[in-house]
Design a protein that fits this description.
Layout: H1 5-15, H2 27-40, H3 45-53, H4 56-60, H5 65-69, H6 76-79, H7 81-84, H8 90-109, H9 113-116, H10 119-127, H11 134-141, H12 146-158, H13 169-179, H14 187-195
């Protein structure tokens, strides 16, 4: 069953301040930095939303931090999908689903990419299945939204800067709300409606 926008916000606010695995930032800081990088690059709103929510599965996975400590992959790229499907379009969901395989793809196809990953990301790569084979890489690249997932992955890799200033969560939740078709009128619109003379 899909989460509501309010429930997504609650998960990010309540669980997001926890440390992001072995990285030097929290889950929420990582999500905001990733969305900010996508926005600064001029990405479509759906990709910005995917960047914000790409690791939501870490916060929803039953094992949570225990899986990470035990060296188990929590399959977070899949965990969030049932909670978001019905609320958000495939343009958001598919890059989320593919972002782990995008890392595996880039390791297979781009010299020096593996070395550029943080130690924590290198460690998780092993748990996530390792580098894709040549045939697997071809299959990955042929999927819809593979390119969006690759760009998400690159923002993901750089969204780990301690203390970096970002717009607040509400800014990006506005993007998610618009994609969910639940845009609220702005205060200006509301005031205009109040000031309009009655018919």
């Amino acid at each position: 069953m899909a989460l509501t926008l309010e429930e997504i916000e609650h998960v990010l606010v309540a669980q997001g301040p926890h440390q992001y695995g072995r990285e030097a930032v929290s889950q929420l800081e990582h999500a905001l930095q990733c969305a900010q990088l996508a926005e600064q690059a001029g990405e479509a709103p759906a990709t910005v939303a995917a960047c914000l929510l790409h690791d939501l599965g870490h916060l929803l996975a039953p094992g949570g931090e225990a899986d990470a400590q035990a060296g188990r992959d929590d399959l977070h790229q899949y965990v969030a999908l049932p909670f978001l499907r019905g609320l958000l379009p495939d343009e958001v969901l598919e890059p989320i689903r593919l972002h782990v395989d995008a890392k595996r793809y880039l390791c297979a196809t781009e010299p020096g990419y593996w070395e550029s990953l943080s130690p924590a990301s290198q460690h998780s790569l092993v748990l996530q299945g390792g580098v894709l084979s040549g045939l697997q890489a071809e299959r990955f690249a042929s999927q819809p939204f593979a390119q969006e997932a690759i760009r998400l992955r690159r923002y993901d890799d750089h969204a780990k800067v301690p203390g970096l200033a970002t717009p607040p969560l509400a800014h990006y939740l506005g993007t998610v709300r618009a994609l969910a078709g639940q845009t609220l009128p702005s205060p200006v619109d509301e005031c205009a409606a109040c000031a309009a003379p009655a018919a």
